[in-house]
Each structure stands twice: as structure tokens, then as C-alpha cells.
Amino acid sequence: MKKNILKGVMAAAALTFISFSGAFAQTNDVDHPTRLSVGVGIGVPTKSYMGDVVLAPDLRVQHDLSNRTSLTLTTGYYGFVGGPDGNPQSDLIPLKAGAKFFFGNTFYVQREVGAAFGTRDGAGTAFAWAPSLGYANNKWDLALRYEGFEYKNDVSNGMVAVRLAYAFKRPGK
User: Fold this and answer.
1) The pLDDT of residue 9
2) Which residues face 131 on adjacent strands?
3) Per-residue DSSP letter, 1
């Protein structure tokens, strides 16, 4: 079941970005409409049973629709370190789609939604949502964010984290 959900989410995300890349390539008024960023986050879980610290490396594709609005697709690995017994419940692999809305030239708010897949047997899949407030220029992105995880059995948890990322320009641009 998890594999089918993951395949469906990945296919939908890929089609969305392919569609938007073609639709806005002719009319985009930004220099580098699509870019890849590599980031690392460090945070604190909101529930103590999840661990003491979260280490969260990620990859993000960002497609600029205009100078003020961008679409994003993010994945990575959330490693929960420590905890009451030194053994966290489960690490997570998120897959989220979102949008960034810039105010001014560099500050933004971002909203993301998607799924977070547990890495241990029986960990399950959670609905993930993440609002962020950040600063970005052509190379660097720094954000403060909250990420919440909601499971089918009404269990919820989350984290508060800081993310620092480096964005790569498209070759030849």
C-alpha cells in the first residue's frame, strides 16, 4: 500500500512540474525559473517520544512562476536522534508540494503539504504540512518552519526547525 501511495504522489508531482515548466517557460520574467537546492535542517520535535533533535537533509526543486511566486517540490530524510530510551519511534521520508510567496525581494512565506513515510515496519504514512517564514536570494535560502505530521489513528507530532539551503543555477543560464 505504501509503495502505491508513494508512486502516485511522485507521478502527480512530476506531472505537475513538467506541466508548469512548459506552460511558464515562454512568459516567465525571472532569470532562472527552475532550480535545485540542497538543504539541511536542524530542529526540535514537538513530542518527546520522537527524539531530542531532528536532522533533516533535503532536496528541493523550485519553479518560479514570477518574481513573487514559486512552486516547490521537496523530499529528504528526517532523522530523529535521542529520545527517552535513546531509540526514536521512526525516521521519516517526506514528499511535499508547496508554494512560496515573496514580499519584498527576498523575504517569503511558504506552505507545503504532502506525505511523510515512516522508515520502520508498521510506522505508517502521515499527512505532512509545513508553513515557513524565510529569506532567500539567488544562492541561499534560510527558513524557520514548523512541520506537522497527522496519522490515520489521530496521532500527531511535529517539529520546529531551521533550514539552510544552497540553490544551484541551471547550466547555461
Assistant:
1) 47
2) 111
3) -
pLDDT of residue 166: 97
Query: What CA–CA distances, in Å, run from 156 to 13, 126, 128, 152, 167?
Result: 25, 9, 10, 9, 32
Provide the pLDDT for residue 22. 41
State the CB neighbour count (10 A cutoff) for residue 90. 18
Distance CA 27, CA 118 (A): 40
CA distance 9 to 47: 27
Q: Give residue for cell 513515510.
A: 117
Which DSSP helix (H) or strand (E) runs through 18? helix 2-24
105-108 contacts at long range (C-beta below 8 A, 24 or more positions apart): 105/67, 106/135, 106/136, 106/137, 107/133, 107/134, 107/135, 108/132, 108/133, 108/134, 108/135, 108/136
Please name the helix (run of DSSP H) or strand (run of DSSP E) that holds residue 93, with its range, or none: strand 92-103
Q: What is the pTM of this model?
A: 0.77
The Cα–Cα gap between 137 and 118 comes to 33
Q: How far does CA 87 lie from the centroid of its chain?
A: 25
- Give the SS3 label for residue 24: helix
